[in-house]
Design brief:
The chain is α+β, with helices and mostly antiparallel strands. It folds into 2 domains: about 120 residues, 3-layer Sandwich (Rieske Iron-sulfur Protein); about 210 residues, Naphthalene 1,2-dioxygenase Alpha Subunit, Chain A, domain 1. It contains 7 helices and 18 strands. It has a 7-stranded antiparallel beta sheet. Strand 6 and strand 7 form a beta hairpin. Helix 1 crosses helix 7. The protein is elongated, with a radius of gyration of 23 Å. It starts with 7 loop residues before the first strand and ends with a helix. The relative contact order is 0.14. The mean pLDDT is about 95.
Length: about 350
Amino acid sequence: MNYVRNTWYVAGWAQDFELNKPVSIAILGEPVVIWRNSENALAALENRCVHRLAPLSLGRCEGQKLRCMYHGLLYDRTGAVTEIPGQDLIPPNAKVRAYPVREKHSWVWVWMGDAAKADRAAIPPSLALDDPGYRLKAGQLDYTAHYLLIDDNLLDLSHLSFAHEKTLGLDMPQWADQRPRLAPIERGLHFERWLADHPPRGFMKKTLGERVDVFNRYDFVFPGIFLQRTGFYPPGTAQASGGQAPEAAPLFWRIDEQAVTPIGPRASRYFYAAGARTDDIEPDRLERLFAVTEVAFNEDKTLIEAQQKLIDLDPERRMLPTSLDAGPTQFRKMVDGLARQPAG
């Protein structure tokens, strides 16, 4: 499969990489081991010892190094073998691939392409889970599906009115009936839309009243980074703003941040965080908001995995495009262009 390699992929939540505990992951079908040493520095190597091809993720951290616990070869952070028990000579090719790895905004990112091109500034901006200005909860799901099917889902939020008619799309037919404005950004797309005269539910109804106008905007950046802000405003704000982005701060500011990582041709990992400004939501209400969000994401998972099974039965069967598909269509064209670029 022709993957885009010169980009950052989310390998996991930073909190899941504990000191001196190697973690096995796969990205783009490649086995990777990531570990955090006693000085809290991350390293990422090919998860395959050069000797007998045993997984280094079953190894032991020793200071800055990682020892394979099959026959004891010791690796440094560059992937080079620095010790072979009972042998003084270390062959020059005793080395595994090392990947650039960074921790930023509570995610651990791995660069899968040319290490010389790895630019930390290219990591998309998101919020840290411990940002004092927000209350956020995080989770993840594994999909048996191609990652671009999940991207399609996030690039076309019209499905909220149907796939999530009892959760995120409750009483919001506008998701399907109204098209967002979209504009190209670096390696992605920017979306904006107003959903006027919406009846909020649950604790939000008690807080915001019977009706609100909702302004939704998000950036979607390759390979599948979804950074969304949804503001709830007094009725009439959409009209007063002339359909453009509002200047005033919202009554309630919902935060959704997600990342899609291709594990293999039919395997993907989906990371997500949801919440609001600290002043907008108490911990118990965050739990309720997040519970509904997780139900909705499992609704997506059920649909997309079933979709993948049908696609695999007839891979040549073409999808019928509609006006709903502007986002997915533009994004896939961009991905095709990136995939044709040389990895080196």
